[in-house]
Amino acid sequence: HGSKIIVFDLDDTLVITDAKIKVCNKKTGECFSLTPEEFNEYEKHPDHELDFDDFKSLEVMKAGRLIDYYLKIFKDAYRMKIAVGIVTARDDREMIYRWLREHVGYRIDKDLIFAVNDPVHKYKGSISDRKKAAFKDLIEMGYSDFQFYDDDEANLTLVKSLEKEYPGIQISTIRAQKAFSI
User: Fold this and answer.
1) Count of CB atoms situated within 10 Å of the CB of 168
2) Taking a C-beta distance cutoff of 8 angstroms, is the pair 37, 17 a contact?
3) What is the DSSP letter of 106?
4) Most buried of the four, 158, 165, 179, 180, by CB within 10 Å?
């Protein structure tokens, strides 16, 4: 492979699904749901339990609406034989691989799919910290020229900070806009 890779987040970047994070208060029993976009701003309360089961469903992924603007960038890179990676907060690399292969029609190297909450990766910390750790793994694989598409500014900022830690690394960060899905 070359040194260039184009990396995409999934939710609200490549696909918009009906998946929600369920939040329940252990003490009061009150529950509510958050979209991935709302979860980016959510601050966890000690009494809250989070349920991410919707994000484990291949059927929910398949029912999602692809964001054509970013999917075109994905397809163009793939066609030009530029490495394509996924760095997502989801927790099942196998499911994402199957979704890309069977539903979207692209087979990318499974080693370039980082579902940062998948126990296989052993990442710790916040979602942003885990995504940064995934990029460190990509750097260790030999990549040095990145384009990263994500809908969350905190993820973009933390990943961009790797340029200071690794001389010679270039990371272009692009904030994904759901408006491009219309």
Assistant:
1) 9
2) no
3) -
4) 158
CA 78 → CA 7, 82, 85, 105, 109, distances in Å?
A: 11, 6, 10, 11, 11
Residues 86-133: tens digit of each pLDDT: 999 999 999 999 999 999 999 999 999 999 999 999 999 888 899 999
* 84 strand-pairing partners: 6
Tokens of 176: 């994904």
Q: How far from the centroid of its chain's Cα atoms is residue 56's Cα?
A: 14
For a pLDDT cut of 70, what percent of the chain falls above it?
Answer: 97
Task: Report the C-alpha gap between 80 and 111 in whole angstroms.
Answer: 19
In this prediction, residue 180 carries a pLDDT of 66
Average pLDDT, the chain: 92
> Would the pTM count as exceeding 0.85?
yes
**CB-based contact 160:166 (threshold 8 Å):** no
The two structure tokens encoding residue 114: 């980082």
Place of tokens 């126990």: 119
All residues at 6 or more sequence positions from 159 whose CB lies less than 8 Å from its CB, including other chains: 128, 131, 132, 135, 146, 148, 150, 171, 173
159-173 confidence digits (pLDDT tens): 999 999 999 999 999
CB 96 within 8 A of CB 88: yes
User: In degrees rounded to 5, what are phi and psi of residue 154?
Assistant: -60, -40
Q: Within 13 A of 68's CA, how many CA atoms are on the CB side? A: 2
